[in-house]
Amino acid sequence: MARREKTLATFGGFDIDRITLVAAGSIAVAGAVLALKYVAYRMTGSVALYSDALESIVNLVTAVAALFAIRVSSLPADKNHPFGHHKAEYFSAVLEGVLIVVAALLIFREALGALLAPRTLEGGVVGLAYNGAATVLNAVWSWFLITHGRQWRSPALVADGWHLFTDVLTSVGVLGGLTLAMLTGITILDPLLACAVGLYILWSGYRIAASSMSGLMDEAVGSDIERRIREAIRQAGEGALQAHEIRTRRAARATFIEFHLVVPGSMTVEEAHRICDRLEIALEDEIEGSDVVIHVEPEHKAVSKGAVKL
After folding, report:
1. Burial degree of 226 (CB within 10 A; 0-12, 13-18, 19+)
2. How far apart are the C-alpha atoms of 140 and 53, rounded to whole Å?
3. DSSP 223-253
4. Domain for residue 1, yes or no?
5. pLDDT tens figures, 204-254
6. Pairing between β-strand 290-298 and β-strand 254-263 as defined by DSSP bridges
7. Does residue 106 form part of some domain?
8. Is there a single domain that holds both residue 164 and residue 196?
C-alpha cells in the first residue's frame, strides 16, 4: 500500500508532515514577497512592478490552496474513497493555472491604461531594490519547492515552485527593463514590460493546468519508472514464470501498479502468495508510495509478447 509521509509534529489535532510544513512555509514566503513588491510599486508607480505584485497575490492565494489540497491528499483511504485522496493536489495545481490566467488579464488591463496615459516613474533605485530582494527570496524558495517537490512526489509543491520560477524570470526582466527606462527616460517601456509579463505568465498558467490535467486523466508513469518496475519484478519474481499486462497510473505521491503473474499450474496458493508478498515488498522499496495489485494466473495464461520473463 502507498506509504504516508512521516509525521514531524502534531498541531491542533492534525499531524504535520514535511510536505505540509513546506506548503505552510510557502504562505509565509508569498506574504513577504507580496509586501516587498507592493512597497516597490507604491514607491515607483510602475505598472510593470504593479504586474509583478499582482502575480504575488496569486502566489499567496495558490499557496493557501496548495496547503489545503496537500492536507486533503494525505488523508487515508475511506469507504467513499478506497483509493485514497491523492488527486486533491492536482485540483490545486489546476486552480493555480487558472488564477495565473486571471492575473494576466488584469495586467493587460492596467498596461493598456498606462499605454494610453504614460506615467512618470519615481523612487527608482530604492523601489527596484525592494523588488530585487523579493526576487532573490522567490528564487531561493522556488528552487527548494521544485527540488523537494520532485523528491517527495508532490505535484502541488512542484507546480508552486515552477510558478515562482516564472515569477523570478519575469521579475528579472522587469528590473532590467525598468532600469533601462529610468536611464533613458523612455517611459513607454514600463507598460510594454507589463504586457510581456502578462504574456509570459499566461503561457505558464496554461502549461501548469495542462500538466495537472494529465494526472487527473490517470496518465501512466514515465519510461524510466516503468523500467525500474519491470526490473524489480524480474529480480523478485523467482518461482513464477512471467508477469504481463503491467499497468500503472500516477496520483500525486501514489503510484498504482497492477499486473498478472503467471505461475506453474502445480504451485500451491501458499507458494504463489509468498511470491506475491516478495514482489510487493520489492516494488514498494523501489518505487516510493507504490500500491501494488497482483492477479495470479496458471501457466496456460502466459503470453508471448510484452511479458517480463522470470
Report:
1. middle
2. 18
3. HHHHHHHHHHHHHH-BTB-EEEEEEEEEETT
4. no
5. 777 767 766 666 676 788 888 999 999 999 999 999 999 999 999 877 667
6. parallel
7. yes
8. yes
